[in-house]
Amino acid sequence: MPRSVNSVAARARRKKLLKEAKGYFGRRKNVHTVAKNAVEKSGVYAYQGRKQKKRNFRSLWISRINAGVREHGMSYSVFMGKLIEKNIQLNRKTLADLAMNHPEAFKQVVDSVK
Q: Which among 1, 47, 59, 103 counts the fewest CB atoms within 10 Å?
């Protein structure tokens, strides 16, 4: 009896993987084994990047809040400490947006904390 192989599914798997490798340079885009390694590695980088993105945005928000607060004669750490004392629950993302785009509203927040 002849050997039965499911070449339809195998070809589909390879096509799917090569589609993910589209745009890569050299053999990474058209040789299955090389493309497989490249796609696996790109998945690792994507996972790490999602974590790093959160860190980067948090540090950006902190520097924007710090810049906004220093205009009103206070440091970031003192401001955040007083926010917690007064039980004002605004997250860093919102505070950074206020500091950048709505300085008069941010000034009211700083005055309420002082």
A: 1
The rounded Cα 12 to chain-centroid distance in angstroms is 32
Phi and psi angles of residue 71, each rounded to the nearest 5 degrees, phi first: -65, -25
Residue 4 confidence (pLDDT) above 90:
no
- As given in the structure block, the two tokens for residue 99 are 């500091």
DSSP 3-state assignment of 20? helix
Both structure tokens of 21:
């490798």
Residue pLDDT, tens place only, 92-110: 999 999 999 999 999 999 9
Question: Nearest CA to 92 among 58, 56, 69?
Answer: 58
For 1-10, 57-66, 69-78, which range has the lowest pLDDT when averaged over its residues? Answer: 1-10
- Cα separation, 66 vs 88, in Å, equals 17
* Domains and their CATH numbers in the chain: 7-113 (1.10.1900.20)
For residues 65 and 95, the answer to whether their CB atoms sit within 8 Å is yes
